[in-house]
Design brief:
Order of helices and strands: HEHEHHHEHEHEHEHHEHEHHH
Distance between the termini: 49 Å
Number of strands: 8
Largest sheet: 8 strands, parallel, barrel
Helix content: 40-55%
């Protein structure tokens, strides 16, 4: 059994952090059952030149840069959906999803949109881009504007992937809003929600902002944080007895330190829910003879947990990483639009 197939055998759903058609084909062979997209992925695909014919057609039709960006995104996500539609049908909507990220520029600080206006636009865009799609999941950030929109989006029958989650506070707000929205639906048979908890960015934060952590604890905060939220999510939804799973997505699973093995985060969460991995992470792991076993419910020693609880200020962590995250959220969309303008020339 290959390394990634052993991961899937533990109970993990393997999703790909890319909608590159070639990568999807390759990762289907590894056992991937879903995918996610973002503006960086779209820009990287445009830069390959493989989609120049579509680009030229849209330019010839007189479309502006923003329309072209979203038309291409829609087309690429739709293509990925077709690749995973069989999984979606076989699992009766529980897997086989592809995430479509809503406009990150709603979070651009220079636009000075109110939370209410952000929420209104998120709701409108979610309805627009979800319409007519079976296995498209709408990705919305756990910002104040995003959180304010979740209840209405879920109540409208749309499946959500709440992303950019770093803390329990964000998770609680997202989960509770989704559950309120779900209860407004006429039926719960197709209610599905997932919550993307970012992992490696947390460890980048602690190295810089919590240097007093012991060597035993440093580099484990992202894993501990995500596992604790996973446990709460598991317990909360188990009590609801729903037909579909409401799952955590373990995101940002690519390692940031050269000294860390490619499988550091992938191994930590093996055994349940969803891991969305970058293509390089999957490729690097597949080259090894690694065999994964269930680790998602295993935590480090009590002394390490106590040290993390005492030294890590999660309020500051969230404030810092969200500020960075929003910038990383909006800037790639600006870069995508700039790339299309360049290609137009």
């Amino acid at each position: 059994m290959s390394a990634l197939k052993s991961l899937v055998a533990t109970g993990t759903k393997l999703w790909l952090d890319s909608i590159d058609p070639d990568e999807i084909k390759r990762n289907l062979g590894f056992g991937a059952t879903g995918a996610t997209s973002n503006p960086i992925i779209i820009a990287d695909l445009i830069q390959t030149g493989r989609f120049d014919s579509q680009l030229k057609t849209l330019i010839a039709e007189g479309k502006d840069d923003e329309t072209i960006a979203w038309t291409l995104t829609d087309s690429l996500v739709k293509s990925a959906q077709e690749s995973f539609l069989g999984v979606w049908e076989k699992t009766k909507c529980d897997d086989g999803w592809v995430s479509f990220e809503l406009d990150p520029l709603l979070e651009d600080p220079t636009r000075n949109l109110t939370v209410a206006e952000q929420a209104r636009q998120y709701i409108a865009l979610a309805k627009k881009w979800a319409a007519g799609h079976k296995n498209r999941m709408i990705k919305i950030p756990a910002t104040e504007g995003g959180l304010a929109a979740i209840e209405e989006i879920v109540a409208a029958g749309i499946t959500v992937n709440v992303t950019l989650i770093f803390t329990k506070r964000q998770y609680y707000a997202a989960r509770d809003a989704a559950w309120k929205g779900a209860q407004r639906r006429p039926a719960l048979d197709q209610f599905k929600s997932v919550y993307s908890i970012f992992v490696s960015r947390v460890d980048v934060y602690t190295e810089k902002h919590v240097p007093t952590l012991s060597p035993e604890a440093q580099g484990l905060v992202g894993i501990v944080n995500a596992k604790q939220i996973w446990q709460e999510n598991t317990e909360f939804w188990a009590a609801k007895n729903l037909p579909l799973k409401q799952e955590m997505i373990f995101a940002s699973t690519g390692t940031k330190k050269p000294s860390d093995p490619a499988w550091k985060y992938v191994e930590a969460f093996a055994g349940s829910d969803i891991e969305t991995n970058p293509p390089k992470t999957n490729s690097d792991i597949e080259k090894t003879d690694k065999t994964f076993t269930r680790q998602v419910d295993k935590l480090p020693s009590e002394s390490v947990l106590k040290e993390i609880a005492e030294k890590v200020n999660y309020e500051h962590l969230e404030e810092t990483l969200m500020k960075e995250g929003i910038q990383k959220f909006a800037d790639p969309q600006k870069a995508l639009l700039a790339l299309i303008a360049k290609q137009r020339g």
